[in-house]
Amino acid sequence: MVTGVTLVTGTLSSSVIDLPFDLPADFTLTHDRLLVLALLAGAIVLTGERTTWRLLRFVVTIAHEGGHAVAAVLVRRELAGIRLHSDTSGVTLSRGRAEGPGMVFTAVSGYPAPSLIGIVFAGLVGLDHIRIMLWATIVLLLLLLTQIRNMFGVLTVVGSGAAAVAVIGWGTERVALGFACAVAWLLLVGGLRAVIELQRSRRQQGSGRGGRRSHLSSDADQLARLTPLPGLFWVTLFFLFSSAALLIGGWLMLR
Description:
Layout: E1 2-3, H1 31-48, H2 50-74, E2 78-84, E3 90-95, H3 101-108, H4 112-126, H5 130-145, H6 151-170, H7 173-206, H8 212-217, H9 219-226, H10 231-254
Parallel strand pairs: 1-3
Antiparallel strand pairs: 2-3
């Protein structure tokens, strides 16, 4: 939400699994590809279960608020800080005009951010640049940390970065690959899940079952106030982008 606002780069295993059916000549189902597919299944299950999704959603929220922050800086708004809350919500504060193209760009950048980062990470995984992907994660989190304005947010970002540091320092090649794939899938699948939750929340609130505050602060409704386009248009745009990103990211990791 926005208001006013690898470890080792050596060759990975490529042992081919024999299957009882024929695959295209240019595709082999390696152990690494099986791992990628297994982690996709795990991401779908874990983001679909309420308890685990509540925990994993913090990663998506970090990327979401980071998207708002980067957009605000790009349009030369004054970034006033980011807050991450224990209910998995977040807010990015920036100073500048309360309307206009800059504010629209800032508001629209939150929901696509996890999926966009997921595509980039998936591309690095597909190119076997696991070390680069892990260090990029740490650098991005450090930059974000300089803008966090509450203790829970600091703990969340530091904890996420510590996981990447642990993999770099002590993880094996296979652990690094699994961690990188898991993060990419979480951003891709979780980014899409967050958009679905957004519309579900808007529908419930429109029926009088939700809270007024969360409805008014949603990015889609803020964009509806900033532009002539309705909130449903923006939710649909987010959904299409996140769905396409999931397909593209999967192809990049499996190619």
